[in-house]
Specification:
The chain is mainly alpha-helical. Helix content is 34%, strand content 6%. The protein contains three helices and two strands, in the order ββααα. The protein has helices at residues 11-20, 28-35, 45-56, and strands at 2-4, 9-10. Strands 1-2 form a two-stranded antiparallel ribbon. It is globular. The model is unreliable at 70-87 (pLDDT under 50).
């Protein structure tokens, strides 16, 4: 299913980017960076975040001790880094 019509991104594109990205994108801005594109209208941001959280599973909220993601940059957990003008 296409979740971002501006960049023609499917839910499979998002899940693949999350599972294969070294930096573990946790929000739309980071995901777009992994995919080499940028947000246009912003209508997809909530859907992208939902798919990212589902793909990360229990690590979506916060990484636990022993989680392979816990060694990542803690600033990557900041969802406030991406704010869309669309409302």
């Amino acid at each position: 299913m296409i979740v971002c019509s501006c960049n023609v991104l499917s839910d499979h594109d998002v899940r693949n980017a999350v599972s294969s990205a070294e930096g573990l994108p946790r929000n739309a801005k980071q995901l777009y960076g992994c995919l080499g594109c940028s947000a246009e209208c912003g209508r997809c941001a909530r859907t992208l975040k939902t798919i990212i959280d589902e793909a990360l599973g229990p690590c979506a909220e916060a990484c636990c001790a022993g989680c392979p993601h816990s060694a990542r940059d803690p600033e990557r957990h900041d969802d406030a880094a991406f704010a869309l003008a669309a409302s």
